[in-house]
Amino acid sequence: MKVILIGPAFPLRGGIADFNEALACSLLEQNIDTVIYSFYYQYPKILFPGTSQFTKGKGPEKLKINSTISSINPYSWLKTAMAIAAEKPDLVVIRYWLPFMAPALGTIAKYLKKKKISIIAIADNVIPHEKRPGDKQFTQYFVNQCKGFITMSKEVERQLSQFTPTNHKICLPHPIYNIFGNRIPKKEARVTLNLPTEERIVLFFGFIRAYKGLGLLLEAMADPKIRERKIKLVVAGEFYEDNKPYLEQIKSLGISESVILHTSFIEKEKVRDYFCAADMVIQPYMSATQSGITQIAYYFGRPMLVTNVGGLSEIVADKRVGYVTEKNSASIVKSLIDFYDNNRENEFSKSVDIDKEKFSWKSFTNGLLKLYDEIR
Predict the structure, then answer these.
(1) What is the distance between the alpha carbons of residues 228 and 225, in angstroms, rounded to a whole number?
(2) Cβ distance 320 to 348 under 8 Å?
(3) Strand extents, DSSP E, the chain
(4) Which tens digit of pLDDT belongs to each residue from 124-154?
(5) How deeply is 115 buried, as exposed, middle or buried, from its count of CB atoms within 10 A (0-12, 13-18, 19+)?
(6) Which of 94, 218, 231, 292 is the most exposed place for a label (fewest CB within 10 A)?
(7) Which of 134, 140, 132, 131 is nearest to 121 (CA)?
(8) Stretch 47-63: mean pLDDT
(9) What is the pLDDT of residues 18-40, one digit of tens each?
(10) How many percent of the chain have pLDDT more than 70?
(11) Which residue has the higher pLDDT, 253 or 359?
(12) Contact 80, 69 (CB under 8 A)
């Protein structure tokens, strides 16, 4: 069997690229010939607020990655579609996460569809967090070209039903990343990052955008009960919007000594240090579908606090591996106090290690192959 996976991959950076590479490796481990077709030009600067779209270091040794797609060059779409068709794949899997990519991905899929090639979309989002004119029309165009769909939360599955009545869909939980190295002792991780070794430290990790709710977490950090317990917050990740409002909020709340900012892009080799250094990982999102951050926390055995939005509560069992709170600072504060006053870390960490077994890559690829059997 031969599978072509279309989506970001090395040297492009970010969680979607990491996911695609891990999925390809999982398919290869099952002796399925797998090739990735990626982008040589992904985002125009107006749509990419970060410092760079590319990562450093070496790419995955086992993977064949062809960077042939430009999101804005229709000639590259046709050229890529023809190259894929020439490989005569049994299945093409397309990663869909943003309506801006629909013209490119939809046009490639439309060509392959005419060649009677089975197409499955893995949809991170169907309705984006940050909405723009034309989103629904672009998404509809892409969806029309695909025969099967994988979502990673019930929320996205519900969104998908607005665009297609198909029964050829399956909801599979986001697998756990296994690409960041082995767990290390908390003290060692903190020494590496030059963090206090004996303090209470929670972590906000990932790109910083409005919908991820960092402002809400900063409000919680200013609560007198949090100050009394001397809890510190590490913010690790690059600003994908103006950082000035956040810096002003930290100053106006008087929490500069409680907030440690590591706001540059965190390279893959450093991810382990941040998660192993934290007592708990916090995702105070204002909206969400699913998140790779929770799966990294699972991999490193870290308790989690998430807000009750999107599919996050489907992944984090409340009072077992962490907390599911409401979207307000008071609810976050209440959970933080319970966590530290009742010494929940060891209890939650043990449950994290038990529950993570259901999020394997093999389970995800088996679900993908089962869906392929339905549509071919």
Answers:
(1) 5
(2) yes
(3) 2-6, 33-41, 64-70, 91-96, 118-123, 148-151, 169-171, 200-205, 231-236, 259-262, 280-283, 304-307, 322-325
(4) 888 876 777 889 999 999 999 999 999 998 8
(5) middle
(6) 292
(7) 140
(8) 70
(9) 899 999 999 999 999 999 999 99
(10) 96
(11) 253
(12) yes
CA-closest candidate to residue 18, choices 129, 109, 124: 124
Which of these, 52, 241, 46, lies nearest to 132 by C-alpha position? 46
Compute the CA torsion angle 117, 118, 124, 125 (nearest 10 deg). 80
Nearest partner of 277 among 296, 298, 295, 302, judged by Cα: 302
Distance between start and end Cα atoms, the chain? 13
CA–CA separation, 287 vs 129, rounded Å? 7
Count how many residues are written for the chain: 376
AA letter at 280 = M
Per-residue exposure over 105-114, b if at least 16 CB sit within 10 Å of its own CB, e if not:
bbbbbbbbbe
Q: What is the dihedral of CA 19, 25, 26, 28, to 10 degrees?
A: 150
Q: Which of 255, 210, 201 is nearest to 231 (CA)?
A: 201
Distance CA 263, CA 265 (A): 7
d(CA 286, CA 343): 27
| pLDDT for the residue 373 | 96
Chain segment 76-130, per-residue pLDDT in tens: 999 999 999 999 999 999 999 999 999 999 999 999 999 999 999 999 888 876 7
Place of tokens 């599919």: 311
CB hemisphere CA count around 27 (13 angstroms): 25
The band of 211, judged by pLDDT with boundaries at 50, 70 and 90, is confident
Residue 292 has pLDDT above 90, yes or no: no
Cα–Cα separations (whole angstroms), residue 370 to 29, 80, 87, 120: 17, 27, 22, 11
